[in-house]
Amino acid sequence: MAVFAGVLRSARTAAGLTQVALAERSGIARPNIAAYEHGRREPLFDTAMTLLDAAEAHVAIEPTIDWTWTDDSRPYAVPSRLWRLSAAECLRRFDPGLHLWWSGPRREFDLALRSDRLRAYELVLREGTPSDIEAIVDGILLCEAWPDLKLPRPLRTAWNALIAEQREPTDLVAAS
Predict the structure, then answer these.
(1) I need a surface site. Which of 27, 50, 114, 163 has the fewest CB within 10 A?
(2) Which CATH architecture has domain 3-54?
(3) Of 137, 140, 119, nearest to 79 (Cα)?
(4) Of the candidates 79, 118, 121, which has an alpha carbon nearest to the alpha carbon of residue 100?
């Protein structure tokens, strides 16, 4: 499914709207909405914004995350910035798969449990690809967990600046 298809469907259902109701609010024909939601068509930007506005969805555009790798004997992926996940994404059950959990009995982590989340974060930060890391690590939860994570020194060093940047009080908070 195309990315916009899931976003549109989620926004519409969160607003409690049917496709017909969204069509009436947006002025966009219901068959087009159905095609967008099923990923058969991608709307133009203006059309997408009209649909999301009619569904009372907030749109945030964030810069892409650029990844680099440490130069250590064991390289670790390091992002250019931290990101946020939805509550459903960051508190879901996580199966690391064989590429991350290759020995021992099969394991699933409940990311809603802090102890499981710490273990899963340790695993993906050490062994994961950028897409693995982006899929389960939430920036705020990572900052909260940072002091308690058991990580190799080069990995911790590589990520420390990102964590410190997020933990710094902003000028707005300092002024109040």
Answers:
(1) 27
(2) Orthogonal Bundle (1.10)
(3) 137
(4) 121
- Distance from C-alpha of 134 to C-alpha of 129, rounded to nearest angstrom: 9
Per-residue pLDDT of the chain (176 residues; tens, 9 = 90+): 467 898 999 999 999 999 999 999 999 999 999 999 999 999 999 999 999 999 999 888 889 999 999 998 999 999 999 999 989 999 999 999 988 988 888 889 999 999 999 999 999 999 999 999 999 999 999 999 999 999 999 999 999 999 998 876 554 444 44
HSE-CB at 149 with a 13 A cutoff on CA atoms is: 26
**33 burial class (0-12, 13-18, 19+ CB within 10 angstroms)?**
buried
Q: How far apart are CA 109 and CA 128, in angstroms?
A: 15
Q: Compute the half-sphere exposure of residue 112: CA atoms within 13 Å on the CB side of its CA.
A: 5
Beta strands in 56-135 (DSSP E): 67-69, 77-79, 93-94, 109-110
Residue ranges of the chain assigned to CATH 1.10.260.40:
3-54
